[in-house]
Amino acid sequence: MNEQLLTCDQAFSLKPETLEKRIMEFYQETQNSSVTIKYILALRVRFKLGAQEFAHILEDLVRYLFMNTKATRTMKRFFYFFEDYFQAPEWKRLKLRVFPIRNFGEKVFSVVRSLISTVRPEETTES
Predict the structure, then answer these.
(1) What is the DSSP string of 27-81?
(2) Of the candidates 68, 67, 65, 57, which has an alpha carbon nearest to the alpha carbon of residue 87?
(3) Is 85 helix (H, G, I), strand (E, B) or coil?
(4) What does R_g of the chain's alpha carbons equal in angstroms?
(5) Which one of 54, 59, 80, 81 is CB 3.0 to 4.6 Å from 47, fit for a cystine?
(6) How far is CA 68 from the centre of its chain?
């Protein structure tokens, strides 16, 4: 499937039901999570421009993609645009899953900082 699923005009003029159907069919045929996320992000833009019926469009698909598929570069790039699709505990687990190295680095940095503060003597000011 080399051709484009939606044009810009279609993404911003078709009804939500039609868009949901087309995007779901596209994902089922191709299993391409990166392109699917980009299409859903375009619909999020449409929601932010005032189309309230697009508030949580394709929520089940977004949740499935982020929770059950391998995190692609595109998914990492647009990850934070979909925060309201998840509850707080799910969001925390998902951040650990999508960005494991960043979270590991932050954890190591905090542990090292706490170890240094216990060894380092208190600063005194001499006059």
Answers:
(1) HHHH--HHHHHHHHHHHHHHHHTT-GGGTTTTHHHHHHHHHHSPPPHHHHHTGGG
(2) 67
(3) helix
(4) 21
(5) 54
(6) 13
CB count, 10 Å around CB of 36?
24
User: pLDDT digits over 59-83, tens only?
Assistant: 999 999 999 999 889 999 999 999 9
**Cβ-contact 63, 103 below 8 angstroms:** no
**12: DSSP letter:** T
Nearest 5°: the CA angle 74, 65, 55 is 90
Here the tokens at position 66 are: 């982020």
- Regions in the chain scoring below 70 on pLDDT: 1-3, 102-107, 119-127
Q: Which residue's structure tokens are 């159907």?
A: 21
Residue 83's pLDDT is what?
92
Kindly report the length of the chain: 127
